[in-house]
């Protein structure tokens, strides 16, 4: 029988803590951001309005921030859309990931107290917000699977997966939603094969990932917060079961390797294991789906550039980088100063947050000529910061580039595409891409 103490403890864990956490990390910041946006604070506007803006509209906001200088003090943090500053901060050892400890101890203690016990992509021990030796240890264990060379070995298999999905698309009659039928399915299939996730689980993984995507956002409403929390709990439990299965039936996939890493290799605790494996799996498709949908839209809207790529397929790699530059899947990231320092001639005090707008750095006219033009032949397209920079540079960049190249080329070789009304962007703020992209497809004759 459940005792009163257990009952109270359950209510505190399941009801009170989430409410406190939501209030402190979303409700209050959201109110402050909305007020800031109403008063014209540019960073607040970026956070509040970004999700409703197209890449063309958001570029206007970047220009306004740029006009105020390379590092702008906003009400909430410093913000930069300057390529050199964004790169410098991301590469600096004087900045760290995650939020600084709050200098108001009561709030800080309350945030700590209300922390989730389970997985969260932007709470330790997630690699994204871990620095120092632990970060090196996590990264080393998984990185060899994602080197450029290892990824080239996956190209043929990716082509075969893409061809299978395109066969299914060709068999469809009438309009299709390209996100559900292609852009999501390709990356989830590829990362699942690398990680040993069976085919029967992929739809489930996609569903959980979709619900958890807003976990990177600030200022989400209560209902979204509960959906995210529920999806993260479910994902946590699913990972545990999947690990049990792989412990009993190991394969030659990355998850099996991680589970059997020895102490010499830097064995991970169960919690670290889930955080690392969960991040690689989720990051492996949540962003690449956006790359594919954003790039399809751009190429359909620039038919002369698409015709050039069909005539000379050697340009596809660069086209992927230009799509990443022009409409990146990750809008921004943040760092906090680990000590008093100076950036772009300005003093930045220890603990100060800096918002680094990757999408804004990609439009810096000091680096990119005519930055607001989409140009698949742009010589330095690859200088974009869409994969971040420094120690946390995207581990999956080579894989994402390869999937983008294979996925887009195969798609446009097979079909002529007419985009139909009804396209909608995802409701997330940091992850940017399409939720639906309705289209009519006509098979090409060659
Ligand atoms: C177009 C697709 C992708 C984009 C735009 C992208 C973007 C990013 C960005 C911006 C970061 C760093 C965030 C920061 O500095 O705060 C990052 C980190 C990461 N990405 Fe990706 N990513 C993509 C695909 C992938 C794929 C396919 C994988 C699969 C392995 C992956 C795995 C990771 C991991 C594990 C990290 C954490 C690295 C660390 O903290 O050391 N990403 N990604």
From TrEMBL:
Key word Cell inner membrane present: no
Pfam families registered for this protein in UniProt: p450 (PF00067)
UniProt keyword annotation of Secreted present: no
Keywords: Heme, Iron, Metal-binding, Monooxygenase, Oxidoreductase
PROSITE patterns per record: CYTOCHROME_P450
Top-rank lineage group of the source organism: Bacteria
Record-stated family: Belongs to the cytochrome P450 family.
Protein name per Swiss-Prot or TrEMBL: Cytochrome P450
Organism lineage: Bacteria, Bacillati, Actinomycetota, Actinomycetes, Micrococcales
């Amino acid at each position: 029988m459940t005792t009163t103490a257990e009952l109270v403890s359950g209510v505190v864990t399941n009801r009170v803590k989430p409410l406190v956490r939501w209030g402190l990390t979303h409700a209050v910041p959201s109110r402050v951001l909305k007020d800031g946006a109403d008063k014209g604070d540019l960073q607040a506007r970026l956070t509040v309005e970004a999700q409703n803006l197209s890449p063309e509209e958001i570029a206007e906001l970047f220009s306004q921030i740029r006009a105020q200088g390379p590092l702008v003090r906003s009400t909430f943090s410093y913000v930069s859309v300057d390529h050199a500053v964004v790169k410098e901060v991301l590469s600096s050892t004087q900045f760290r990931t995650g939020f600084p400890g709050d200098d108001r101890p009561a709030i800080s203690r309350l945030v700590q107290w209300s922390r989730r016990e389970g997985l969260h992509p932007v709470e330790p021990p997630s690699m994204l917000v871990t620095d120092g030796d632990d970060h090196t240890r996590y990264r080393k264990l998984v990185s060899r699977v994602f080197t450029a060379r290892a990824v080239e070995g996956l190209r043929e298999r990716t082509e075969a997966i893409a061809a299978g999905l395109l066969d299914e698309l060709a068999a469809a009659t009438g309009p299709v939603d390209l996100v559900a039928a292609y852009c999501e399915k390709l990356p989830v299939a590829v990362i699942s094969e690398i990680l040993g996730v069976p085919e029967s689980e992929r739809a489930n993984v996609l569903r959980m990932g979709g619900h958890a995507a807003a976990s990177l956002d600030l200022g989400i409403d209560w209902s979204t917060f509960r959906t995210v929390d529920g999806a993260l709990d479910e994902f946590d439990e699913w990972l545990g079961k999947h690990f049990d299965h792989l412990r009993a039936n190991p394969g030659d996939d990355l998850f099996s390797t991680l589970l059997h890493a020895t102490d010499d290799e830097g064995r991970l605790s169960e919690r670290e294991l889930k955080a690392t494996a969960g991040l690689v799996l989720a990051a492996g498709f949540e962003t690449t789906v956006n790359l594919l949908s954003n790039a399809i839209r751009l190429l359909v809207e620039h038919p002369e550039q698409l015709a050039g790529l069909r005539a000379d397929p050697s340009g596809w790699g660069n086209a992927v980088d230009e799509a990443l530059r022009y409409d990146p899947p990750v809008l921004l990231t943040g760092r906090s100063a680990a000590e008093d320092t100076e950036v772009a001639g300005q003093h930045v005090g220890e603990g100060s947050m800096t918002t680094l707008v990757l999408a804004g750095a990609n439009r810096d006219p000091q680096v990119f000529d005519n930055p607001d033009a989409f140009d698949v032949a742009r010589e330095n397209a690859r200088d974009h910061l869409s994969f971040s920079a420094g120690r946390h540079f995207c581990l999956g960049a080579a894989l994402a580039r390869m999937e983008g190249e294979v996925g887009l080329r195969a798609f446009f070789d097979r079909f002529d595409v007419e985009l139909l009304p009804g396209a909608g962007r995802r409701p997330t703020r940091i992850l940017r891409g399409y939720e639906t992209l309705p289209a009519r497809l006509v098979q090409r004759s060659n």
